């Protein structure tokens, strides 16, 4: 199944595994790449040294194209881009839109640039700046999300830009891939579906907690880091939402100290990152302080397996997932389902003639 996405990135199937913090490691990324999809390492939660090790580990497991997700608002974003260029990584994806200069450097170095966006105007902006493709996430998606459903946002973006569009938010199977193609997308990106695979590093107990959920068991909260996040509805989330503002800020300050120690970043670098984040995302200072919550809360839930204290990002599609296939089995199944759906549509078309 060839599309503009497969041609652009050199992958076999138009299926992307998103760069989920504390989930998308070398093993999951390489397994996706080996299966013909586009695996993406979650570089946004790694130091440059950790990212270098993750890229090396991924290259040791596969010689197929893969990508790395970066945070454009980090002080070391340019350094990490240079690392990707040296290592000949195929794709640089960004959770926040990179500035034109950074996009230009990526393209000069041979990287395919694919930012993620949640609004038509953001897609138009990054396309004008030179992005090669864009991931469009609708409100159904997990983690940071917007308010417009994929079925409404996707066709708007496809009509607004001429670069390949990758659909995210609510996808888990081949029928979804066909629907995305019908809207004008060049492929689909999935997070929750790849989190629930055998190669995912998430603890089995946490995976089972996901598998037990219905489509109504997620909630969008601002209390994780000050901006909307779609997560599993848990006692931890309910407890966080019930706390008073001063208690949230106190917890965020503690998490900022813990994150500084864990990451090894200097306080001046963290302050510069906070200022950049405030400006790029138009946040208040209280929201900036709260942003320290997300890395530690997600790490506790997804990396450490502590459901009792951590937060679990999840798309609404979690309620449609009931198994833990390998990445190869998953992508093979998606392609087969898509081909069957297209054959069925062709039969309907022929019958109506």
Tell me what the structure shows.
With 353 residues, the protein is an alpha/beta fold. It has two domains: 4-201 and 323-352, Aldolase class I (TIM Barrel, Alpha-Beta Barrel); 206-303, no CATH class. It is built from 16 helices and eleven strands. It has helices at residues 4-9, 26-34, 48-61, 77-86, 100-108, 120-129, 150-160, 174-183, 192-195, 204-211, 235-242, 245-263, 267-281, 285-290, 293-303, 327-352; strands spanning 15-17, 38-42, 67-70, 91-94, 112-117, 134-137, 143-144, 165-168, 187-190, 218-221, 229-232. The strands form two sheets. An eight-stranded parallel beta barrel has the order 1-2-3-4-5-6-8-9, surrounded by seven helices. A three-stranded antiparallel sheet has the order 7-11-10, with no helix packed on it. Helix 2 runs parallel beside helix 3 (48-61) and helix 8 packs across helix 16. The relative contact order is 0.14. The mean pLDDT is 89.
Query: What percent of residues adopt helix (DSSP H or I)?
Result: 40-55%
Would you tell me the overall average pLDDT? 89
Largest sheet: 8 strands, parallel, barrel
Q: How do the SSEs run, as a string of H and E?
A: HEHEHEHEHEHEEHEHEHHEEHHHHHH
CATH superfamily of the largest domain: Aldolase class I
Radius of gyration equals 19 Å
Report the uncertain regions: none
Derived from helix and strand composition plus strand pairing, the structural class reads: alpha/beta
Number of DSSP helical runs: 16
Characterize the overall form: globular
How many domains in all? 2
The neighbouring-strand order within the major sheet is 1-2-3-4-5-6-8-9
CATH architecture of the largest domain: Alpha-Beta Barrel
CATH class group of the largest domain: Alpha Beta
Percentage beta strand: 5-15%
Distance between the amino and carboxyl termini: 26 Å
By DSSP, the count of extended strands is: 11
Would you give the CATH topology of the largest domain? TIM Barrel
């Amino acid at each position: 199944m060839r599309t503009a996405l497969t041609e652009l990135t050199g992958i076999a199937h138009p299926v992307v595994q998103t760069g989920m913090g504390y989930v998308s490691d070398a093993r999951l990324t390489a397994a996706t790449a080996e299966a013909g999809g586009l695996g993406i390492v979650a570089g946004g939660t790694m130091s440059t040294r950790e990212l270098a090790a993750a890229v090396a580990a991924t290259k040791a497991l596969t010689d197929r194209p893969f990508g790395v997700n970066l945070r454009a608002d980090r002080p070391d974003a340019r350094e990490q881009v240079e690392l990707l260029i040296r290592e000949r990584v195929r794709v640089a994806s960004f959770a926040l839109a990179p500035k034109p200069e950074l996009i230009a450097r990526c393209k000069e170095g041979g990287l395919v640039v694919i930012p993620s966006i949640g609004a038509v105007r953001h897609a138009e902006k990054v396309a004008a700046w030179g992005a090669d493709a864009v991931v469009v996430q609708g409100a159904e998606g997990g983690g940071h999300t917007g308010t417009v459903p994929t079925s409404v946002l996707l066709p708007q973006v496809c009509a607004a830009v001429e670069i390949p569009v990758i659909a995210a938010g609510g996808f888990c199977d081949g029928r979804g891939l066909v629907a995305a193609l019908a809207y004008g997308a060049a492929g689909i990106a999935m997070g929750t579906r790849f989190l629930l695979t055998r190669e995912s590093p998430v603890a089995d107990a946490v995976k089972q907690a996901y598998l037990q959920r219905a489509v109504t068991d997620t909630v969008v909260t601002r209390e994780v880091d000050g901006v909307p996040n779609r997560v599993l509805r848990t006692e931890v989330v309910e407890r966080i939402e019930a706390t008073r503002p001063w208690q949230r800020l106190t917890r965020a300050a503690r998490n900022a100290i813990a994150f500084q120690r864990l990451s090894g970043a200097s306080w001046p670098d963290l302050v510069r990152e906070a200022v950049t984040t405030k400006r790029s995302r138009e946040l208040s200072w209280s929201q900036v302080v709260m942003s320290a919550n997300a890395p530690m809360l997600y790490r506790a839930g997804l990396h450490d397996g502590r459901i009792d204290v951590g937060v679990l990002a999840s798309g609404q599609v979690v309620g449609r997932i009931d198994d833990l296939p390998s990445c190869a089995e998953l992508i093979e199944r998606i392609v087969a389902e898509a081909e069957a759906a297209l054959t069925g549509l062709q039969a309907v078309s022929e019958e109506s003639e």
